[in-house]
Amino acid sequence: MRFGEAFTTCMRKYTDFNGRARRSEYWWFYLALRLITLPFAIAFMVAYVMLFVGADVQPDGTFSLSGGDFAPMVVTFALMMLVSLAFLLPSYAAAARRLHDMGQSGLWLLLGLVGLSIVPTIMCIMDTQPGTNQWGPDPKAGERGTYGYPTAYPTGTPAYPPIAPAYPPSTPAYPPITPPTPPAPPPFA
In terms of pTM, does the model score above 0.85? Predict the structure, then answer.
């Protein structure tokens, strides 16, 4: 999925927390959100710095903001918050669909409420769960045969066959260790 397609797909599914989302869909949408909010964040920081550039430093080392204008900072902050709130639901919906794609519940996103949002973010990096799961069909099913993946997985079987042992089970991996025989004692004359 490409950048523009991912953004339009996620915006069409504004509040759709059902289904699955591929990694490309989620991460392209994440990048788009960061690029959209970046100018507002820069404008806010510029207004913030400009407020303190006009500040007067008193002889005792304190600041006097009497000459500073808070309006640009307040307006840019309000715009930044409005844009962030407008994209709040689609970003959570895309993250929930991404977690569904790995076979996980979207409730993992609630870890962000206690400061552990890194956990679902790392989970969003993981690959798709092959085959159909409870949230829908595999979005990569059409590509599985092309890139070396098996085309179908029976339920309850591992994705890849088990690794065969290097030696047959009856043959030990290493020969048994036998201690060396001591040398014969020298003859006494």
Answer: no
